[in-house]
Amino acid sequence: MNLDFFIMGTEKGGSTYLLDCLREHPGIFMPRKEVSFFENYLYDPDDLTAFTSQFDDAQAGQKLGVKRPTMLGHPEFGERLNRHFPEAKLIAILRNPIDRALSAYTQHKTMRTIPNRPAEWFFDRILQGPIDGYPRASLVLEHGLYERNLRRVERFFPTDRIFLLTLDEVRADNLGALRRTYRFLGVDEDYQPTGARRQPMRAPYSPILAGYRRLQSRVLHEMTEDGFLVRRKLPLMRAADVASVAGYRMLEAVLPRGEKPRLSPELRNRLLAYYDEDITGLERRLDRDLSAWRS
What pLDDT does 237 receive? Predict the structure, then answer.
């Protein structure tokens, strides 16, 4: 098989919205869920069966794509993808890196890959260096270094095969952003998916939902030594997974979404200093003013 495109970024940047809209297009086939094959604990360069089997239902002539938005920040992703699919096109939606980091913090906390501590504590601590026992905690920050991560990918893929959007422009003009994405992929750009008007990035911040997610993660996953979550292989795990998701959906429907974590002005300024040089490089790359990200 030939992979036509890969949504590589960014985590908590609106990639699920893009996946939903692209999957509706009759000229495109994508697996419903994220594809984590290229990550360390799964990747086997000599056996792509687990990867290619996800396209068994594709129709002739459809463009084939996958989504895994953490890959933009994965140091070996470009080399690994190039080894198997050197002609693939790459897509990323980029979000204000501080806002993205706050959303990622919420998700990682519920998945137990960072300490269950307040946002102010976590970002103050991670800016100082690694946290013992949480080898992937630094990725909450590093996945927002877009310019650095793009340069790493460009060692293996030319810029004309990388398509970049910002979440701001997707929110401002959903259909325009989708039309340009379809054009980049070479499919009918006038197609309008039913979910196009849905606004991306409505993350829940309810403490009850967060506690449920942590319990769900503890039941369904075990953690590798390098901090990856791996689904447990036990009897009835499929039934437990379905039941836990159904329970989460019921709670989500009746509970308020909660308040997004807030950071002190001093800590937000430290985060801005961390990202400032990278934002400047991205402004040059996109020829676009990203000053709103600094406010």
Answer: 74
